[in-house]
Design a protein that fits this description.
The chain is an alpha/beta fold and 284 residues long. The protein is built from nine helices and ten strands. It is globular.
C-alpha cells in the first residue's frame, strides 16, 4: 500500500505522533523503502498538550531514522486567529487539530496523508476506505466512498483534493501489539504500567497535568496505570494495570472487551457521532 501510494501521488506524508499505530507505520515504511530515504516527510500535528514521553520518543525516532519531520502547531493556529481555544474544565485542543492539519497540507502542498487509524477503534473509522478521498475543503463524505474490490485502490484526485490512507485499517489492537513483539519495536514507556499522579473524572483516570482545571471534589493520587492509546493529556485516560512487559500487555489486550478509544478517550464521548462529525470536517 505504501509503495503504491508513493507511485501514484507526488507529495504524500506520514502522520507520526509517537503513538503505537504510527510507530508501526514507521516500521512498515522502513520495510517498504529502506535502504533509500522515505519518499515523503513525517508530519506531526502538535497540540502543545502532548505527553512528554511521547514527544521524547518522537524526537529520538526521527533523529535515529534521519527523516524530515514537519511539526504543525495548534498553538500557532491559535496565535494567528485560525482557531479559538476552548475554555472551562473540560477544554481540549483535540478538535482544533483539524484546522492545523488542513493548513499544513495546503502549506506544504501535500496530496495524501498516511495515518494509523484502524476500523476496530471506532464506528466512524470502520466506514473509511483504505484510500479515503477528501474533497477540496478537506472534508469526508461517508456516503460517497470509492469501491475497493480485490485490494485495488483508487489514488486519483482532482487539484485541491487529497487522500487519507490507512494501511492498518484492517488490523486490530491485538494485531498491532503482536507485530510490535514480533519486530521488537521500542515504545514510549507510557504504554507500560508505571506509577503516575492521576485524578478521576467521568469514570476515567487522567494524568495530572497543567492543562486541566480540576472540578470540585477531584483529588490527585498516585496509581499504577498504563495508557492503551495516546492523545492529548486533556482527553486521554489511563487504565489501572500491572502490565509491565509486552507479553503482559498482549494478554491484557486479548481479554479486553472495549476498544482503546472507547475505554479511554473523552473526545469520543461528546455525542454518539462525535468522531464522524470531526472526520466530516477533516479530522484524522
Amino acid at each position: 500500500m505504501l509503495r503504491e501510494l508513493a507511485a501514484e501521488r507526488e507529495r504524500p506524508c506520514l502522520l507520526f505522533s509517537g503513538g503505537k499505530d504510527s510507530i508501526v507505520l514507521l516500521r512498515l515504511a522502513e520495510k517498504a523503502f529502506r535502504p533509500a530515504r522515505f519518499p515523503f516527510p513525517l508530519l506531526h500535528v502538535d497540540t502543545g498538550h502532548n505527553f512528554p514521553e511521547t514527544l521524547e520518543y518522537r524526537a529520538h525516532r526521527v533523529a535515529e531514522l534521519g527523516e524530515r519531520l514537519i511539526v504543525a502547531s495548534v498553538q500557532s493556529s491559535i496565535d494567528r486567529g485560525r482557531v479559538t481555544e476552548e475554555t472551562g474544565p473540560r477544554a481540549s485542543r483535540n478538535r482544533l487539530q483539524t484546522t492545523t492539519l488542513l493548513d499544513a497540507l495546503e502549506e506544504h502542498e501535500l496530496d495524501a496523508a498516511i495515518g494509523g487509524a484502524r476500523r476496530d477503534e471506532e464506528r466512524a473509522r470502520a466506514k473509511e476506505r483504505i484510500f479515503s478521498h477528501r474533497d477540496e475543503f478537506g472534508q469526508w463524505d461517508p456516503k460517497n466512498q470509492r469501491p475497493e474490490l480485490w485490494a485495488l485502490y483508487n489514488g486519483r484526485i482532482r487539484r485541491g483534493e487529497h487522500l487519507r490512507v490507512f494501511p492498518l485499517s484492517n488490523w486490530t489492537e491485538l494485531d498491532v501489539w503482536e507485530y510490535i513483539r514480533l519486530e521488537s519495536i521500542a515504545l514510549p514507556s507510557i504504554y507500560f504500567a508505571h506509577h503516575r499522579e492521576v485524578f478521576e473524572r467521568d469514570g476515567m483516570l487522567y494524568a495530572a497535568n497543567p492543562f486541566v482545571r480540576h472540578l470540585p471534589g477531584e483529588t490527585v493520587r498516585v496509581e499504577l496505570v498504563r495508557f492503551r492509546t495516546i492523545g492529548d493529556m486533556t482527553c486521554t485516560g489511563a487504565i489501572r494495570s500491572a502490565a509491565r512487559t509486552l507479553d503482559d500487555v498482549i494478554a491484557e489486550v486479548a481479554a479486553a472487551r472495549v476498544t482503546e478509544r472507547g475505554a479511554t478517550r473523552a473526545d469520543d464521548r461528546f455525542t454518539e457521532a462525535a468522531m464522524e462529525d470531526r472526520k466530516r470536517e477533516g479530522y484524522f
